[in-house]
Amino acid sequence: MATHKLLLLPGDGIGPEVMREVEKIVGWFARNGVGFETEADLVGGAAYDAHGVSISEAAMARAQEADAVLFGAVGGPKWDGVPYAVRPEAGLLRLRKDLGLFANLRPAICYPALADASSLKREVVEGLDIMIVRELTGGVYFGEPKEIVTLEDGSQRAVDTQLYTTGEIERIARVAFDLAGKRRNKVSSAEKSNVMKTGVLWRQIVTRIHREEFPATQLEHVLADNCAMQLVRNPKQFDVIVTDNLFGDILSDIAAMLTGSLGMLPSASLGAVDPKTGSRKALYEPVHGSAPDIAGKGLANPIAMIGSFGMALRYSFGLIEAADMLDRAIANVLASGTRTRDIAAPGANAVGTQEIGDAIVKEL
Amino acid sequence: MATHKLLLLPGDGIGPEVMREVEKIVGWFARNGVGFETEADLVGGAAYDAHGVSISEAAMARAQEADAVLFGAVGGPKWDGVPYAVRPEAGLLRLRKDLGLFANLRPAICYPALADASSLKREVVEGLDIMIVRELTGGVYFGEPKEIVTLEDGSQRAVDTQLYTTGEIERIARVAFDLAGKRRNKVSSAEKSNVMKTGVLWRQIVTRIHREEFPATQLEHVLADNCAMQLVRNPKQFDVIVTDNLFGDILSDIAAMLTGSLGMLPSASLGAVDPKTGSRKALYEPVHGSAPDIAGKGLANPIAMIGSFGMALRYSFGLIEAADMLDRAIANVLASGTRTRDIAAPGANAVGTQEIGDAIVKEL
Ligand SMILES: CC(C)[C@H](C(=O)O)[C@@H](O)C(=O)O
Ligand SMILES: CC(C)[C@H](C(=O)O)[C@@H](O)C(=O)O
């Protein structure tokens, strides 16, 4: 029985309760021949409370060792006042950077059964299936200088630096074109090349990679503000959207919200493939946040977290059959009407976090 | 008869044809006792074609002299290949910067008669009335360094700099709180303080201005990605949103698109009030762009441009009665069903750009 090393980082808010449901699924697979070696550790506010940092060196070492990291969510009002360097989000940012997880895949899928939960008209979003490919280790998130300085007159000046290199843009472009080839073969590249030099370089390099390596794929360039508009106006025009770290943060949240299925959407953050082992570092997390308002109440929808584990089965472990099985189990549970509050049909009874996990295990 | 100095910069694409309709309105006011001294000049691609720059020094001098600038739109595929420094958008950016137009007011209003034109459900957007206050002369648009450098190995590195000072944030915060006081008295301040130092400073200063000067206004801080989500999920929760140049670019486009009335939305860009004269520099422009695909066909909706002139009447010339009159005339024309293609009721006959202008003059 092969074992796969999985690190669970539940984090804060609803993180721990949705992670508990993933553990049920992992347990089921273990009982049925797919072994996982799981460890768990703290991240975010929980790590800060225990260690005074948002991720400990020990947890970082475990993440480096793991075949895949499952990440819940971080943050909450409790830690609003903690120093910038150890705020909950810093743990996530360090994981992304130190593991080299440059490619963030965020599917936005509108499940037909849930189309009415969207604030958009059914016909605008029904059947929506977009993949946002967000660059995750560069741009304004990590560029230096990044500082606040106090000037002579006592006033302050804050600076962030948006920085991209040829190599960073090339590798994320390739991920996007590759994915498009397995989908509807269209890539929309979003930047602000009319205002930003990083956007100018981004457009140049994406254009070249397209011409040299993926000429059969349809490529369009779209300004990020217009892309946001078009996502609201007619999202089905898109297949794969490739964009930088900051625009990706915003555009992927818009795309997720369109679907009416925010509690359903998983994501994968992938590193480069190691030419020696053929494997890559990876972290899987739900698109939703820590939702402090409903934390601990057993109301959270665990499907995005469970789906993130499904993405790990597929992308990190090559267990395509197991991943398909899990996806089918999720779909069946949804179809049976067993749903949490956020996606329950009007008038239908909503169930809690645990019931969803149990129902999926039962389906398996 | 008082005269007011107006500079018309129609620009590219549909800019000239929607500006022509404004001239009709200006003409009507002139015949009825409100005199304007109008000049016109080139900007954007049109200026590039004539002078090799996106705005000439002569046009800049006229803009400095004017009481208000009316700006159409710039850009189009024709100028996609021109050098970065003289691309069409550079003319607009220079106007904003050199005139010190730091406060960009972008109302997003959903006209009940047009609610069905939105891609969002009627109940989500009907009656929507948000004001986005976007900082317009700072941030990543103007920060230095802003460059692409070629490294020793032939690869390139692009840099943009996001920069904000105490003073820049204070003055835009005041504009937002001031406006909120005349509305529903709520300000939502959007930034990425969990990732960006400029966001940290932004939040600090907005918090202080609120405490010291506008304690009676409701203030909430919202992360920009969440703000984008909430705009899609439930936009009516917002009154005034204050945010930086780049987030404002994206968030205001989302807000505009929600309304289903993109061709209807005006905007104002205002400078500081001169303590001596009590006046301020100002530029008024529609939220929509140059729409090269329909340019020259007489299909464009001129209402955003005419409404921008209405904002000039109100904010630059203090002609409140005239502004109200113009707003009423626009509303009456809309109510009568005289509409351009973009907002025509399903099955109804759409009219052209000129018919709308004529109909508004007739209503006046
Ligand atoms: C938590 C935060 C740092 C993070 C980001 O801005 O990247 C989040 O919004 C996300 O999209 O994963
Ligand atoms: C034309 C462009 C430079 C401009 C901007 O990015 O500010 C436009 O998108 C806007 O919002 O006015």
From TrEMBL, chains A, B:
Binds 1 Mg(2+) or Mn(2+) ion per subunit. Substrate binds at R96, R106, R134, D225. Keywords: Amino-acid biosynthesis, Branched-chain amino acid biosynthesis, Cytoplasm, Leucine biosynthesis, Magnesium, Manganese, Metal-binding, NAD, Oxidoreductase. Mg(2+) binds at D225, D249, D253. One of its GO terms (biological process) is L-leucine biosynthetic process. GO terms for molecular function: 3-isopropylmalate dehydrogenase activity; magnesium ion binding; NAD binding. Pathway: Amino-acid biosynthesis; L-leucine biosynthesis; L-leucine from 3-methyl-2-oxobutanoate: step 3/4. It catalyses: (2R,3S)-3-isopropylmalate + NAD(+) = 4-methyl-2-oxopentanoate + CO2 + NADH. It is an enzyme of class 1 (oxidoreductase). One of its GO terms (cellular component) is cytosol. Its main location: cytoplasm. The record marks Y141, K192 as: Important for catalysis. Its cofactor is Mg(2+); Mn(2+). InterPro entries: IsoCit/isopropylmalate_DH_CS, IsoPropMal-DH-like_dom, Isopropylmalate_DH. NAD(+) binds at residues 76-89, 289-301. Catalyzes the oxidation of 3-carboxy-2-hydroxy-4-methylpentanoate (3-isopropylmalate) to 3-carboxy-4-methyl-2-oxopentanoate. The product decarboxylates to 4-methyl-2 oxopentanoate. Homodimer. This is 3-isopropylmalate dehydrogenase. It comes from Microvirga thermotolerans.
